[in-house]
Amino acid sequence: MLDTTLPQQTVRYLNQVLGGESVRVAPNGKTAQLPYFLQDGYEVLPGELLGQPITLACVKGRQPLAAQQIDQHAKRLRELLHAPVIIALPEVAPGERKQLIAHGVAFVVPDRQLFAPQMGMILTERFGAEPRREQELASPATQALLIWFLNHHPVTETWHPFEEAAALGYAGMTATRAIRELLQFKLFELEVRGRAKYLKLNGTRRDLWEKAKPHLRTPVLKTMWTYDRRILEVTGARWAGESALARLTMVNEPQQQVLAMTGEAGQRARQAGIFFEPREIAGGIAVQVWRYEPGLQVKEKTVDPLSLWLSLRDNRDDRIQMALDEIEEKFLW
Questions:
Q1: How far apart, in Å, are the Cα atoms of 322 and each of 207, 251, 312, 317?
Q2: What is the CATH number of domain 137-215?
Q3: CA distances from 179 to 137, 196, 207 (A)
Q4: Which single residue of 84, 169, 230, 270 has CA 20 to 30 Å from 200?
Q5: 6-124 maps to which CATH number?
């Protein structure tokens, strides 16, 4: 039988490159006591590597995580399980690989690379072109423009993205790249009028959303936590996550409030003396840092519903999934 899961692929690869049965997985009850965000994000496998305690943390899903976030997760796992941690990834882009190495994160990509200098192991296989995943995901700016279109163009029409790009703070070159990506994904057809380029919607707006989903990622780059409630005043942050979902659907308000802001807003908050914790804190506010402006619906106090949907689509809670279905049903397609 072929190895079909990332944990299986990882164990097979490590045994292949290190020899024999170098890796022995020995599950224990401690993994069930891990914080939910670690259980949701990783398949955690305690065991031994070359006779020494080790924890393999295999990333679930295919949504990219920031290197800093992975670093924090690895440190937390090491503290809780009292063993060195190797993060297993299904694939890694060159830029992501560079960031992981810069943070000193031990990681393995089956059949590609093993980087664990703390354990004296560095092995790099031949890398080909940039992974297909990155080629198939829209850039943050392209995603923001597409979400803007769906939120602000309620009828089928041709679209000239340059004005929206300027309104969102993107340069003309960014708009040009966005057009190229949207055409590459076959989401629009190109219509040229003189020197101007327009995008023509091929199908309905709901069709566009369904076709775009595989190319869109979570807008959340990382999450920080703070006790300082001035965060609402200083940054103009929007309600996000389950806090936004509670305002848009019948889901109950979460115990921990969730906000979203840009990285620039985070810098303003720090300059105002607001302190952030890198890990979850009881009674604190979860502050998501987004890849693009979370205020695409200017008059609302929540993030826009489609970006909210993308930020929560990998949540396995049935009540969350039902609420996300409601979000899509209520959206003005």
A1: 21, 9, 11, 9
A2: 1.10.10.10
A3: 14, 12, 18
A4: 169
A5: 3.40.1350
